[in-house]
Design brief:
two-stranded antiparallel sheet, Rossmann fold, five-stranded parallel beta sheet, alpha/beta, 17 helices, 3 domains, Helicase, Ruva Protein, domain 3
Length: about 400
């Protein structure tokens, strides 16, 4: 069987497993099936010409081939403008929104001026359900930047079952529709980064450290900036990773790590020398609430928790998210922007049921969510539980006014 070489990866292939173009009479154009997949091929009709007449059918051409040579840079933005957008969409968390606005604005400036030696990467620390992921989505979608949101719990060291760090790049490459230059301008958001704490740190546990320090070391190379191969087939025929032949320069990416870091308040108390005493002369002294301790978190606390100093040293910014208070939850329910209750009321109207929740009912709902302690996620849980019997029992055309007493019964 005749052996040919792919014009892209230069690997040998044959006519049965390659696309061959004869548009250039002096040289055959050969693309192997691996590069066809990697370049996200689509079917388009070839322009008129001698070669097109010979083929007489739609040709397979690389849809994004030209985009591999460049992509338009997004326009810079002032941090205040991005902060205004975040204020409209995210309740509270002024410190974290300010940190994110400056980080993203710096990222855009760095894209326009590669000589700008300012580190824009960001660590977001805060309890679950306070808006970390939502903030990233709002900023990235507003600016039109490709972004990927992934959980650190799925990442493992190379050679173990699970995803290695290069899969983050593959997902970002896919979000950029195969445009490598556009992908290199994007944002990688790694949630639950506290789960990567090394076993030798404060949160140590028994067993092999396959998803902790080894993953942090692998991430360190990407955050520093390197030419990394993009996995093409994540479960290759031999069970190992296959690579598309496309590499990504990670030095232009914006990296945002986030995590709840459960128990980090105790580290802050120890560092500050704050202890809660139940006996003796200090029995009446009360330790600060977690809401008051979160703003005191520093990079050193993250290192003590189990994040390696090398990684912390390359994450220049620290954004702290505090636990949501009653007023914050009430704002999420019925505040400006995109209030949560609006979606549930629209769902009820789609079933021809009119539901009304007075202010007192919303306040009771916020108080119940505050007791659950899972932030905005608690609101979703409570609303789903409350609306389920309403939608199941009310006939089309009916109207329901949900009082606090009625809501207590539904919950």
């Amino acid at each position: 069987m005749e052996q040919l070489r792919c014009n892209f990866c230069h690997e040998p292939t044959d006519r049965e497993h390659a696309y061959i173009s004869d548009l250039n009479p002096r040289r055959l154009g050969v693309i192997c099936h691996h590069c066809l997949d990697a370049l996200m091929i689509t079917h388009e009709r070839r322009p008129a010409g001698p070669g097109a007449a010979a083929m007489g059918a739609p040709a397979v051409v690389p849809r994004k081939l030209a985009q591999h040579t460049g992509a338009a840079l997004p326009e810079p933005i002032h941090p205040q403008r991005l902060l205004e957008v975040l204020n409209q969409k995210v309740a509270g968390q002024h410190h974290a929104k300010e940190a994110l606005a400056v980080a993203v604005a710096t990222h855009l400036q760095r894209l326009h001026n590669p000589d700008l030696k300012v580190n824009p990467h960001l660590f977001l620390v805060g309890p679950t359900g306070v808006g970390k992921t939502h903030m990233i989505k709002v900023a990235a979608q507003y600016l039109g930047l490709p972004y990927v949101i992934a959980g650190a719990t799925s990442l493992t060291a190379a050679g173990y079952v699970g995803d290695d760090v290069e899969t983050l790049l593959a997902r970002l490459f896919a979000r950029a529709e195969g445009n490598i230059k556009k992908a290199e301008m994007g944002i990688v958001f790694l949630d639950e980064a506290d789960k990567l704490a090394r076993k030798s740190g404060r949160q140590r546990a028994e067993g092999r450290d396959v998803g902790g320090e080894a993953v942090q070391q692998a991430l360190l190379k990407l955050v520093e900036g390197t030419e990394a191969p993009i996995p093409h087939n994540l479960s290759g025929p031999s069970g190992s990773r296959e690579y598309s032949g496309v590499t990504m320069n990670t030095s232009r990416l914006l990296w945002v790590f986030a995590g709840a870091f459960e128990g980090i308040e105790e580290l802050v108390k120890e560092r500050l020398g704050v202890y809660e005493r139940s006996i003796g002369f200090g029995a009446s002294a009360q330790a600060p609430e977690p809401r008051a301790l979160y703003p005191q978190i520093t990079h050193d606390d993250l290192v003590e928790y189990g994040i390696i100093p090398e990684l912390i040293g390359r994450i220049g910014n620290l954004g702290i998210l505090e636990p949501l208070g009653r007023d914050d939850l009430l704002h999420i329910l019925n505040g400006t922007g995109e209030p949560l209750i609006k979606s549930y009321l629209e769902l009820a109207r789609s079933f021809q049921v009119e539901v009304e929740l007075p202010r007192t009912t919303l306040e009771f709902l916020a108080e119940q969510a505050l007791e659950l302690g899972t932030g905005a996620r608690a609101l979703h849980t409570l609303l789903s539980k409350a609306f389920r019997p309403i939608l199941a029992r009310q006939k089309p055309g009916s109207k329901v006014v949900v009082t606090p007493q009625m809501l207590r019964g539904l919950l």
